[in-house]
Amino acid sequence: RKAAKDNPDGYPQFFESRIAYILTTGGNWASGNIGDFKLTIDKGSPKNLVSFCGDNVRKVGPTTFEMTAKDFYPEHDIDILLLEQADDTSGGDNGNGG
Questions:
Q1: pTM of the model
Q2: Are 52 and 76 in contact (CB under 8 A)?
Q3: In terms of Cα–Cα distance, which of 76, 92, 18, 93 is closest to 49?
Q4: I need a labelling partner for 76 at 20 to 30 A (CA). Which of 29, 39, 48, 95 fits?
Q5: Are 73 and 18 in contact (CB under 8 A)?
């Protein structure tokens, strides 16, 4: 809400990043399954948003999400959407221009 309030158009501004992770080649593995599958996604900042489809996804930290599975057979690849707030200066110059 604060991000929306601070922008003249009333909407928060985000930078979009998309990550495509290929899993379907796992069908070419010796067993065809991934025995112990673990995917960890870190969105970087608590202010950022992340979106992806997966089963049994849990939040394991302030910015990290984890998906695990036994004998996982990938039926499709994973597409991850990361939205970073445009005004997030936590890793930059703190808005001081330097």
A1: 0.69
A2: no
A3: 18
A4: 48
A5: no
Domain ranges in the chain are: 2-85
Cβ(34)–Cβ(72) below 8 Å:
yes
Ordered mean pLDDT values, 10 residues apiece, the chain (98 residues): 63 90 71 86 95 94 96 89 77 44
Sign, CA dihedral 7-9-12-13, equals: negative
SS (H, E, C) the chain: CHHHHHCCCCCCCEEEEEEEECCHHHHHCCCCCEEEEEEEEECCCCCCEEECCCCCEEECCCCEEEEEEEEECCCCCEEEEEEEECCCCCCCCCCCCC
Supply the pLDDT for residue 27.
59
Task: Give the C-alpha separation, 45 to 47, whole Å.
Answer: 5
Q: Which two tokens stand for residue 43?
A: 């969105």
Angle (CA) 69-73-77 rounded to 5° is 95
- Distance (Å, rounded) from C-alpha 96 to C-alpha 74? 46
